[in-house]
């Protein structure tokens, strides 16, 4: 074992635990064990999180793609602000092992840069951390000292994307899942095309549902069929539309909740989501769920009127729900569960 953590070269579990955390030490113990895999967990966005075996060879190949793309070297300072219990945190450690980079370890929190006073060359965050880091001048100043930032686990709200694109940070939304061992494509925040681009030799196609098929010649499994409906630009680029399993079939018309959410996001200052609701006439109808206290009747009517100006006739919410707090996955992704 040899890894640089918080500016110190560590060679033993005791050194890792003293400099970083027991969670990092536990992962390194597993990484250097005799098995050819480590245990991970699926995100839980479409069901209960499930244990999954992640091949170490695949993790190394995935790490190499990111290291090469962002030119990470032994002179790079990276930030680990995610739990090593999940794939995003594990992969930051593997990137450090592969590149020799200095990995600055801070406890996972909503404000990961609160105690970081130095420049960070490369970091990975979930959207909730980015949103909090954009909330005030002090946090934005710290975020501005990050050279490159990748964001995954859940979509970043459009308002946060706009604010982030105004900072001197090379920031990217990632596309991937636990099964692909971290991301396989990146979308530059602020890019008006909204296109995701493949890393390395990865290529894309679509199946008969228009769902993305990922071709990964560097992995043990060479092909992965997803439930993500996309607009395929070419074999290296796609535009994400939404989840096939989220599609609302309203009177025979297919409606994508994620597309509606993008169109109406500027109207909201709190979290919301679109989901299917059973309907006697249409089979399914569009429902809007809002987190927090109910709006007044006047404000609710005004909101629905403004939504109608932005979406098609079949995309207008016919039911509205208020939930005290949304259920979330471990990465902060909202679980679309109606009461």
Automatic annotation (TrEMBL):
This is O-succinylbenzoic acid--CoA ligase. Gene3D superfamilies: 3.30.300.30, N-terminal domain of ligase-like. One of its GO terms (molecular function) is acid-thiol ligase activity. Residues 39-193 form the AMP-dependent synthetase/ligase domain. Pfam families: AMP-binding. It comes from Barnesiella viscericola DSM 18177. Keywords: Ligase. It comes from the Bacteria. Transmembrane segments: none annotated.
